[in-house]
Write a structure and sequence with these properties.
The chain is α+β, with helices and mostly antiparallel strands and about 220 residues long. The chain contains seven helices and ten strands. It has a single domain, classed as B-lactam Antibiotic, Isopenicillin N Synthase, Chain (Jelly Rolls, Sandwich). The longest helix has 14 residues.
Length: about 220
Amino acid sequence: MIRSNNTVSLGSGWVDPSSWDFVDEVQSQLSIVRNELWAMTQSHQMTAQTLGFGPRNWISKELNLPEISNCVENWIRDGGFHSEQIGYDSRKSGEWQTLPLFKSDLPQTEALASRYLPNTLQMLNHIPNLQFSAIFKQPPDAEIAVHKHSQNRRIFHFLLNSLDGGQAWIEVGNERRQLSQQGDCLAFDVRTPHGSGNNSTTDRINLVLDIAMSME
């Protein structure tokens, strides 16, 4: 899974994505992920909220699967905090919108997502130690407050769309790095304080992977 032991830079929290074997494969298939997502929204002619590309509800309402609505909330709690505190669905400004794809202890999520994004889920199934995956959408001018998780995990953000009129950013520790072009990837240890924002004029849409370290 890891090509080298030097995956965290001097305690900064940042991780070198190129050190992980699965990253090249994911980047090579980002266009497939994007196309499946776009086709899903168009073919079903639903609003983003009805589809579930919105805060924590995803398509549970449509298919009468209320347990799916807790997928993101459960992931937040797994990280050691409640969404009313700091982090993803607790908004500093703007809002996050979340489409869950996979959660290791909630197989219903994968089963439902595979109906709409089958190739995406097939790719995810080959990623070792994957605990959670989702598509996150962060609107222009939105920010997520600085927070950290309690588990020994690495999170990877792959940008699915190129941004116009500026850049998005993730701050880990005291260092801020930018995302602007489709395929850009940033990764870090979630135990390090981190936050994010979108200073572009385009929705920032990321494929997010939460990976457990093998010693867990």
